Amino acid sequence: MSAKIIRGTEIREEILEELAREVENLKKRHGRPPGLVTILIGENPASVSYVKNKIRTAKRLGFKEVQENLTTTVAEKDLLDMIRRYNEDDTIDGILVQLPLPGHIDENRVLMAIDPDKDVDGFHPVNVGRLVIGGDAVKFPPCTPAGIVEMIIRAGVETRGAEVVVIGRSNIVGKPVACMMMQKGRGGNATVTVVHTGTKDLASHCLRADILIVAAGVPDLIKAEWIKPGACVIDVGVNRVGLMTDPKTGEEKALLRGDVDFEAASHVAGFLTPVPGGVGPMTITMLMKNTLASMKYRTEPRK
Ligand code: NAP
Asked: What is the 217 CA–ligand 1 centroid distance (Å)?
């Protein structure tokens, strides 16, 4: 068997084109585009690169993009005051504070300060609760899990009645994606098992999976022998395993590997995502989708 490769880079383009059309319509109806503010503290290279991508994508869609760059010496109170100002700003629909934060700032207090109706990352406990309730209660599904579900749907993989196995139980990937896939409705109605380091016999669970979602952060954890023939395998892992020279720019950059042995898995799986170019590009795309949705909730409330 040769797996169909599900490319996030291609699905991202489809979705961004759909969103760009919606932005134009919103601007016509309300005289303004969606507004997103990103607050970056310090110069952590991974955060800087992620924020750059966010800005580029927001600008491409014609969003109002506000970038706040703060130094690592910023006082927690000043950061909280800034968040409160954006909570009150009617031209801003999404507020995003890039994690991790410097040690002297309480991450929980910062996330709790964001208005849940502008929390487009979906990390505020109110939005976690909405996700668990499901259906119309959901406002901002967290971006990486939402991207995973969207990829599965757009690849044409049936989730209803499927055995889904999720490896990992983090708050940003494993738990929310498991929650989304067990709900009734589009991209859900699956029978979900979540496995982790306390699980006995990981391989036997993987072998049952019609859809295997791997978010462990362990390079090449999943072997071909653990994959049910024809299964859909979504590799969320991003592991820096060395350095490589970028063939386009000649610059040195991180060599990435996923959690799945891609080459071997491609002979067994029916569908497979690559790393890089799989789940990664979907995260920022879904952030844009949430920001646009936020403007719609505010300007065109559901009856
Ligand atoms: P995390 O917080 O470190 O959680 C990893 C989870 O995997 C934990 O629940 C852990 O179990 C489980 N695990 C680790 N090793 C395992 C093993 N050998 N067998 C079974 N379970 C195992 O990681 P995360 O934030 O969810 O991220 C996971 C991976 O996805 C990372 O590589 C990260 O870089 C990547 N990621 C990618 C994106 C993207 O946009 N593409 C976004 C987020 C994360 P315990 O709970 O028992 O410790």
From this structure: 4
